[in-house]
Amino acid sequence: MATLKALRMRINSVKSTRKITQAMKMVAAAKLRRAQTQAEAARPYAERMARMLGSLGAAVAGSPDAPRLLAGTGGDQTYLLVVVSAERGLSGAFNTNVSRLGRGRARELGAQGKTVRILSVGRKGAAFLKRELADRFVGEVSFAGQKRVGFEDAAGVATMITEMLERGEFDVCELIYNRFQSVITQVPSLQRLIPSPMPELAETKGPQALYEYEPGEDEILAQLLPQNLAIQVYRALLESAAGFYGSQMNAMDNATRNAGEMIKKLTLNYNRTRQANITSELIEIISGAEAV
Amino acid sequence: MATFQLELVSPEKLLLSRQVDMVVIPAAEGEMGVLPGHAPMIVTLRGGAIRVQEAGQWTESLFVAGGFAEVTGERVTILRDEATPVAQPSRTAAERRVAEAESAYTEAATGTPERREAAMQRLLSARAMVALAEAA
Questions:
Q1: pTM as predicted
Q2: A212 and chain B: CB distance < 8 Å anywhere?
Q3: Is residue A220 over pLDDT 70?
Q4: Is residue A59 within a helix (H) or strand (E), and if so which, with residue range?
Q5: Nearest chain A Cα distance for residue B40, angstroms
Q6: Cβ(A49)–Cβ(A227) under 8 Å?
Q7: Cβ–Cβ contacts within 10 Å for residue A40, how many?
């Protein structure tokens, strides 16, 4: 049985752990709110971009000389997986989940005889994936030390992707990230970037305005598509950031609760031990007195 | 007087949304004045100033480095490429940009035609920014 002193030290240590996790939970909650606002602020641009792309893409889709960013290279031999994870841990299964999905997808594609390349965004996912798939890595992006991800960061990643496409280094590009469903649920999901799935055309069924294009449709698409790619990446980064804080908040909430339970158990144990000590001392004294 | 909705959107947020009389946008093939009831168009933008007229007055002139504009009869949506929130460029920032663009241009001189074209666009847009900063 542990001594009283050891128990007291243990209780104190768990108490300070609880303080830390509690503080982290509150910090994560505040950051979550900020990340959510940022994600919301980015929505108008994405919506309008999708609207333009919808009317433009319909005009070009299916034509043989559609731009590569829209139609891909035509092959599907080489896959580029862009795995978005967080920069930090202490967030439950957040990083593991998304990395696992990435690893599973890489294995699946490997089994089909495809070549897989990995571009990882975020430090934690990179560490996980490197254990097994280090030779597939073509790039690593990390935003460690940055307070928030900006559009420029996403644009940088998008440029890397387009440059690789221009050099013909892959045929299909897929984005793997944690989709933010709610504060408590983040769903690791896979989204195809190139060839890009056409935006929903359902809403364009009504009387649709016929646009004039200046300069031509091709020139506009040539500018719109890279920008659209950057927007997709940006959205994924924002969702991942919001998801990360949600996940961290949860993990820290659990940790705080567990620490509380542990303190309760330890305190009970401590009191019992103390009582037992007193009792045995009393018995000693009494039996000593009786012997006299 | 008839008005229409002008929206200026950057990737990071909606910068502006209000009713205006007229707007002049720096389209890729020349400045374009838009009044209510304009024919629907999608145009690309080069670097330059968006000038806004409200209640018969030129009220604002905003810098864009590039992007797209969607014009319909009752709405003009401008999507800017960059997230920089500065609507009014400062002289020093503009000059720094020109310097950056110039070095990028010399670097790209040996690259593919597309890259050269992109660097050229960047340089022109940076020069437009300087011109605008000087006028302000």
A1: 0.84
A2: yes
A3: yes
A4: helix A43-60
A5: 5
A6: yes
A7: 12
User: What is the pLDDT, as a whole number, of residue A26?
Assistant: 96
Residues of chain A in contact with residue B28, where contact means CB-CB under 8 angstroms, are: 214-215, 219
A220–B68 C-beta distance less than 8 A: yes
A184 min Cα distance to partner chain B (Å): 25
Q: Are residues B48 and B11 in the same domain?
A: yes
Tokens in use for A56?
């433009």
Chain B residues within an 8 Å CB radius of A48:
7, 9, 70, 77, 79
**Same-domain pairing of B102 and B74:** no
The token pair at B21 is 């009389």
Which CATH number belongs to the domain containing residue B16 in this structure? Answer: 2.60.15.10
* Protein fold of A45-200+211-248: Pyruvate Kinase; Chain: A, domain 1 (3.40.1380)
Q: Calculate how close chain B gets to A223, using CA atoms only, in Å.
A: 8
Tens digits of residue pLDDT in A89-146: 899 999 999 999 999 999 999 999 999 999 999 999 999 999 888 888 988 888 888 8
Domain that holds residue B9: 4-80
Reported ipTM: 0.77
Residue A188 near residue A101, CB atoms below 8 Å: yes
Q: Which amino acid is at B93?
A: A
Are B52 and B9 members of one domain? yes
According to the model, what pLDDT value does residue A11 have?
96
Q: How confident is the model at residue B122 (pLDDT cuts 50, 70, 90)?
A: confident
